[in-house]
Structures
1.
Amino acid sequence: MVTVALGSTLATILLSTDVSWSEGAVALVLLVALQFVVAWTTTRWPATRSALTSAPTLLVLHGEILEEVLGEHRVSPGELRQAVRASGSGDLSQVGAVVLESDGTLSVVPASSLGDASALRDVPGAHT
């Protein structure tokens, strides 16, 4: 999100005659400083991390799509299938888990690589 904001701010500085270079520079410095403060705070105090970022979410477990979770997190079945295909799998039954990560990416764990699922320890619902 910060990258998009920085790009948008830079484009406005370069293309708009209504924004001076100094105003744009202040905006860029402010965005970078805020990003630094958020990153520093979330690494020092775990409670702020949970307030500012979402927890990873289980979308598929042992090849079964958790439909209600897809709706809650606004992930379409097509997006889910696309992530599975991108991982090299053509069969949902061969997928051990799909996790919607806190950064918005979808992680696909093949059933053959699931093992004891210890990598899913911080994912709610993974050990049911």
2.
Amino acid sequence: MEKLFSYGTLRSKQIQMQLFNKVLTGTKDQLLNHKLKSLQIEEEFGMADYVVAVPTEDATDPIHGIVYNISPSDLAKIDIFESNAYKRVEVTLNSGIVAWIYIEN
């Protein structure tokens, strides 16, 4: 199993059902030294507003989110789902868990 830290769209039960045909269960965690930045992505029907994690030097900048256990095949589905505005990297969360996260590309 893989660990995925989600702070945005992937926490949506509706999105999870579309991607995985199931709702994920996870635990709350935090990513330190990062903050959320607004991001506009062009979609089929125009521009849409999202957020993206960006590194900071300030340890008081936490991002709150959920850590999910997912299969490698589910992780591959997310790679396709995320736009090229994001890249997947491994991070160590506040709990000490090492997880994948999508950050600014």
3.
Amino acid sequence: MAEPSPMEELVGFLASPRHEIRNIACGTLVGYSTGSQNSIFKPPGLKPIRDLKILLRDHPATSESAATILVNVSDDKAVLDLLANDNSFLELLFSLITNPSYPGADSIAMLLANMAKHESIPGKILKLKREKPKVSGSENAMDQLMDLFVKGSGKTLNKNADFDYLAYLFADIAGHPEGRKHFTEAQPYDNVIPLTKLIVFTEHESLVRRKGVASTIKNSLFDITSHPTLISESSVNLLPYILLPLMGSEEYPEDESLSMPAEVQLLPPDKKREPDNSIIATHLESVMLLTTTREIREILRELQVYPIVREVHLAVEDDGVRDICERIVNVLKRDEADASKLNGPRVEELEDDIVDLA
């Protein structure tokens, strides 16, 4: 039998009865939790993972290190299964992330986002009810997460956390039918459609927040029946928040600009287009989804969405972005007698592309 390596021996100290030894071991092992070397945490039986789950209840510094390690190893299917199938562990994560003094809340947000790759987690979170924390007035776990994300931006709820990675969790939840239903319907908690709270972040300074929100919007738009409500100016008014990231400082002829949504008219001369091409592509896919029905296509034409897409095609040197632009233009410029034939196939095509931020 081979002698254990020094790192394997150190992993054994995660279960030490002495706090100072657990803390040193856990803090040291964070640096070994990425790449192939993290196999030291995944022997048969996954005892180190079980120890790390317990250490989340330890002193804050030890707990934060344990959370970071679990984030880094939770892409492993066996580890993910172990974490996702433990309902008491999920409740522990919520108790930590909603504690405004817990220093590792952002690591918990990342861990929840990773765990959402497991098919059971979105449904569990949507159904989970728990005691109301200080940071939220709702007993529903999803409402609590939304309050953290919206109210906690800029570290206003927890001085150590901005909760940006919850946007990735929301994107994965919106990839499920029950998740789309949640994001596109008013919730009893405050009678607000959750997407209304997220769209204001499409031009936020955080790349993670922008990317996750864009993906949540796109995945929610697979619920075709919600489109009229989502683009209604008197309801969610989604369209300007999709279009603004697509727009730069270009000027439009008056006959085009005056018909655009008021929010995208008269933009400042220093207006910058979204710098990340993957986010531009996601917003364009959202526009493409909105072209699914003739009713919304007509609205998009009236609001001069075509010229905006035209300018994106000219300005962004990315084959993927230009391909989506061309698809949108083909639909918006096509005669409706031909365009109506595309409804089914186009939706089926995009349904294979629900955004996964792994």
4.
Amino acid sequence: MVHEEKTIITTTTNDHNHHHKKPSPYTSNNIHRAIATTIVIILILIAITSLILWLLYNPHKPKFTVVAATAYGNTSPPVTTAMQVTIITRNPNTRVSIHYDRLVTFLSYQNRPVTPPLMLPPLHHARDSTVAVTPTWPVTVDELVGDDVGMVSLKVVLNGSLRYKYGSMWKSRRKNVYVECDVLVGLKKGVLGQVPLVKSSLCRVDI
């Protein structure tokens, strides 16, 4: 009788030898490196695009000039008049238009306002264009002229806010604008009408 011996091989699973497969550290580093590289490329593209837009659309300040002055009113003391000045404002930008959301103006004499503030209507400045505004204020000439003939140094002040418009839709945030114009006019008691501008200068514009 032949006895067949069977060898039973048992495989013991050792929990200590059974490990879950971990991702290669090199794979993780590659992913992080790729993400960082992508972010850097995006930032570089944004910077290049911003530089190109800045070079194309970098807006220049508007220019203001007082070109005329007129005094209206009675000729009996006190000589109460309405003083009107003509201001030429120019937008030198060929790709950017300007929108004035608010613009207040007044006359100043010896560093003090001599007229009430006057709110100008909203002003749109098309690209590469010139606009004239003619504010008029009540003012007493006797306050300005001590003698029969006087050369009076006045200051035209405009203060408000504007926005630049790039293309057909996008507008910049509101920016404060302050304009100061020194003008020298010849005023004479009892003589009203067109008054000579002895000196007019390009106004100072702060934005």
